[in-house]
Amino acid sequence: MRTGDTHPTTATPSGPAHFPVDPARRPSAAAPPAASSPRTAVAAAVVRRALRELPLRVRFADGTELGKGGPVLHIHRPDAFHARIGKHGLVGFGESYMAGEWDAPDLVAALTVLAAHASELVPAPLQRLRGLWALRQPSARRNTPGGSRANISHHYDLSNELFALFLDETLSYSSAVFRGLPAAWELLAEAQRRKIDRLLDLAEVRDGSRVLEIGTGWGELAIRAAARGARVTSLTLSGEQRELAMERVAAAGLTDRVTVELCDYREARGSYDAVVSVEMIEAVGAEFWPAYFRTLDALLAPGGRVALQAITMPHDRMLASRSTYTWIQKYIFPGGLLPSVEAISETVRDHTSLTIARRDGYGAHYAETLRLWRERFAERADAVAALEFDETFQRMWTFYLAYSEAGFRSGYLDVQQYLLTKEEISR
User: Fold this and answer.
1) What are the structural domains of the chain?
2) What pTM, to 2 d.p., does this model score?
3) H-helix segments, 183-280
4) Which of 82, 54, 52 is nearest to 70 (CA)?
């Protein structure tokens, strides 16, 4: 079994369902902390105070309600819910969902409200004491060369078959760019290719271009660049992705133009006319952003161009949370951190000779991309289970996809396409 035995869902008096969590695999999610602690009492007071002011309808197991109206949120086991938040903050909030202690008929709508009010949920005095109560990122998750390999493997080596269940035929795992919104599943593959072609156009990839891709995914961008006549070196830290990407390159008849290397970006060598990196900076970590951009600069030939796609968050929230440990980092993307537009700008300015020549945001397009993935994931729940991913995993990934979609729908998150240029050497 990949993530623990599948357990039957059992009814409970305080809610419609309970989802037992395998303690061997997810010990902190398996059982809530003791509800009698002072932190639980403080958490309950803070949570209830925040919920009273939000455009939600929060229904507790005893029939009481809070909120000013809006999407419904059911809290089936209030003691466990508050205890988890008291002990582990927002990590506990996500773990409580994994365990079935709360739910929402429209999970994205409820999470969108919370994301839109993220800066207001914790009172200012407690915000200033964040360092005392917030979980700290474990040192083992630092994105050193060895740490990065482990972090990437945690997510991307889960199973190629799993990702294929909810991604479109291009196997693109990043925001698409649609012609119009809302979007339909039938248009997703076209929108993913549009996104890739736009990045290749920004980088001016053409016949004879020497292209470096940092973050292979499953090979679609490398294939499309090579189809233009480019010679592509693509780097990945995922063994499973590399294997399938190479198979897809071979099926496209492009093995003479594409090399896929199991290689950290810091170990890359050579000189390239274009460097393309799609939603890989999120796995770099703030500590290593200077090294990442210095690498782009060092590998790019004079006169070359970098096309970068990056998810961004507000600068103040990034500064407040950059050293704390989040649910997403614990369960989905260990070592991950979203940069802000300001952080990217400052790092490029202070550590490279590159110039940001263009930046375009597509946050609404990512919300639609995530909706299509989330709906497809739900539709194929039986197939996910057949791959031996248990019920807790499915709730965990449903929460991840909905949580991410809500971030973009609320405007808390955005996704940018950057063009960075490098001056030619004057003669």
Assistant:
1) 10-135 (no CATH), 141-421 (3.40.50.150)
2) 0.92
3) 188-202, 220-227, 239-251
4) 54
